[in-house]
Amino acid sequence: MNKRIIIAGLSLILSLGLQAQDIVLKGKELFGKLEARHIGPALMSGRIIDLENHPTNDRVIYAGAAGGGVWKSSNGGASFAPIFDKHAQSIGAIKIDPSDPDNTIWVGTGEIWTRNSVSIGDGLYKSNDGGANWKKIGFEKSERISSIEINPKNSNEIYVGVLGALWGDSSERGVYKTTDGGKNWEKILYINERTGATDVVMDPNDPNTLYAGMWEFRRTGWGFNSGGPNSALYKSTDAGKTWNKIHNGFPEGDLGRFAFAIAPSNSKILYAVVESKEDKGLYRSDDAGANWKLLNGDFGLVVRPFYFSRIVVNPRNPDILVKGGLFGSISRDGGKTFKNLGNMHADIHDIVFDIKNSDRMYVGTDGGVYRSWDGGATLDIVDNMPVSQFYQISVDDLEPYNIYGGLQDNGSWYGPSSSPGGIEARDWKRVGVGDGFRVLKHPTKNIIYSEMQGAQNVWRYDVDKNTTKTIQPLQIKGEADLRFNWNAPIAVSKHQPDRIYIGSQFLHISEDKGDNWKKISPDLTTNDPLKQDKESGGISIDKSGAETHTTIFTIAESPLDEKIIWVGTDDGNVQVTQDGGKTWTNTIANIQGLPKNTWVYHIEASSHNKGTAYAVFDGHAQNDMNPYVYKTTDYGNTWNSIVTDDIIGFARNIQEDYVNKELLYLGTEFGLFITIDGGKNWSRFTNNMPATAVHFIDLQKRTNDLVLGTHGRGVIIIDDISPLRQISQEVLKKDVHFFDTKTAIIKEEGGFGGGSTELQFVGDNPSSSAQIIYYLKKRHTFGKMTLSIQDLSGNELVTLTPGKSKGINIVNWNFRKKAPKVAAGKTFTFGGFTAPRVSEGEYKVILSKGKNKYESTIKLKNDPNSIVTTEERKEQLKTTKSLFDEMQNLAYLVYQIDQNIKAAESLKKNDPKSKKTTTPVIDKLNALKETLVVTTGDNYVAEAEPQLREKLAELYGEVADQFEKPSSSQLENKEVLESRLNEAKIAFDKIEAKEIAKLKKYLEKNSSTPINILSKEDFINK
Fold first, then answer.
1. How does pLDDT run across 361-398, given as a tens digit for each residue?
2. How many CB atoms are located within 10 Å of the residue 24 CB?
3. Closest CA to 455 of 529, 506, 496
4. What is the distance between the alpha carbons of residues 877 and 472, in angstroms, rounded to a whole number?
5. Is 1009 exposed, middle or buried (0-12, 13-18, 19+ CB in 10 A)?
6. Are strands 311-313 and 321-323 parallel, antiparallel or unpaired?
7. Strand order in 467-470's β-sheet?
8. Integer distance in angstroms from the first to the last C-alpha of the chain?
């Protein structure tokens, strides 16, 4: 055989072998100690779906959020904490087992107030330990669970109402029953694939009596239909075996969604709000549903039934009831008359009365949870729940940088990535109202663009002048009406700072910050007239504009060429121009495997190659929950899918890394996914990252922070993702690898912050420490492992606790060396534990694993904003070093005193004859010690007067912590304290020369154990 062929074959085998051995890390093994931090905000909170209170303990309350999971309060609603972060964050229903309320909780996922921007669920969950841990019980394809009822006499008998799919047919709908605690389920009420269960309610006095509201409904990307001949209210008196309609007195014809409630104190009294064309409103039955009477058709009771269909009756008084609605309505006369609840955020979804005092109420709104102590007359917000729902976010390049974004029903805002004391509510600034969407900072000027739903208003806000101008494009005479998506896209040019784009069905461009506009495209949508019906809603017309379709949804100008612009539409077109809008090419036909007309949710133009772009398609509005992510490298002539089975949930957004083109970040309905190999393998990021919908991602270039706009948990930041850029097969095969890290800045910021109360949410700041980041191929489990910082000469400055996990480890260093040895005393002295700060420069990092050592370096730099001069720094360091040494001199002096006292007292106890020799030693040394350290009292009310140690430590701590040179007062005080220390040393030397010398002779003469005094060096290093 030819020698060349043999060599080529061997090369191929070796190549294939190497590829087969590639290391692929997933999840925590890949991300290690990289961790997300939550910055809120919580001042406007977010949409609350369901509230549930403990049946016997009025301190325990649960809240389910639209996209923010389940939150629990153990202090009567004063504050809440999340308990469901690992699971789908869209909540439909929460139920506490009345037989085991402290432990057993059921959660049905999937929001049930079916607006256009709702998230989905993935089944039914159960906790047996009060919410600490959860197990999925089933109903994975239910999408939305509306109700859970538990027989109070038998915890194994449970009923579940499944509302089901919003965007398509589903056979999963209906009412289900289990008699074995959820192991097996029987569907006991089912109408058809379009009709789901909105309410399943058990008679509190008879668990065999059940009521179920069934609703026929459907939403599309361009419309909504509520109601039909299959909507009905049913009753069963035999535990669900048979069901009968109870419509006697209801309107004839097609009905829509019902709101339903039983009066707990008199279960014959029922209330129902009926959606119908005629005679819609609140109906009451006083005979358990046999007959109904229309009481009230007030607007507040019938507005938007798909969004507001919750009635709650006072547990003690059947004539007091509250109806969710635009403002919330309360009646105190059995439903005859209503008035609005007190001032709070609009859109009321649920209400619970306190179990012991019905004047105390909790209300769930689009703006969070509110509390009332006077029956709903006045309310205040629970402001520690960061469940805000961002549609879009962006960042600027300031220090600290700001995050800008628009929220569902809570306006538009911007706030800092860090703030003294943490990121508080007061740090966030409003720049828009209504439903907020895109918010973008002008690249060079202090101007912010923001928009309100459907481009009803697009604002240009001059921050310095505090002036606002509306700048949205308007229809021109003789031209077509402009169609703007509810979430209308805006983009700011990376090439021309004053240039801004906005999309209707056309792409509009302004070169003067929005003062003047021109179209640079034809209609880029399918312009399908069947998807442009404005009469949406079904039985109840709902013209909010949220269903405006055949519109542009995403705009991406190439960062490499201003003439290359990508546009994606909500009806499935991917258009590109390479000449600034003169000509356009629709590339959608080149994408294989994508269902027709799938919503183009995001296009990302590459920072690495002009012809490269990524397109994310969202099919959920067509009842398609699969992720679709494609990449082109040739301007859309060909596209390749980069989706794998690792990705969970339909995708919303993708961000390409600015440095490593193989590193991509993907937001889906169930969290964040990252690939380091261009999409071959994806990993879900779960480090302090809940499974919430990630609607938008931005990457801050200067800090390398990944910033996530979530639709349920506010803004989430992963600080400095740069280690992910450096991962390669070469790195992964090393036992230990140190990542290159940016130069750490020794910031000289001060400030107090902390203006919030203990019950308010405060967002986490990023670490201000230097970070040592390294990769371990295997978790370190056996043997010694240490991490030390040394100067370049090899002198150890400090030892740090190393991370030992497989994957990426992060160890923080606060720029400090070892703290001085502090003299022993009766009380603490806090200043003495301050470690001196190192100077800027380069330092060694030594990681020791058994006999192996691994070395790296880390660079530190002084704060570039500092006003401290080099000479001042030298003076500060010199003084700190001098005081540090004096602290250790004092510590050693006190140690010597203590050792001699200890020896003398031991001898005196064991040898009564030694009293004449030992007593002078003990008395004189104790008298001297009392001038050096505190020997009596405690650390609080019985605090003793400070002695030399306390005064020296306080001065040392002050000087070591500051950056500027010591003041003249500090230097003068230093002389005084050093003088006292020198006097103490002289005093000790005299005692040592006389009394202690006699003691040593006595010990030697009597062959007793000599006094053991360590050398100063050994004492310091002990």
1. 999 999 999 999 999 999 999 999 999 999 999 999 99
2. 13
3. 506
4. 58
5. exposed
6. antiparallel
7. 436-441, 447-452, 458-462, 467-470
8. 72
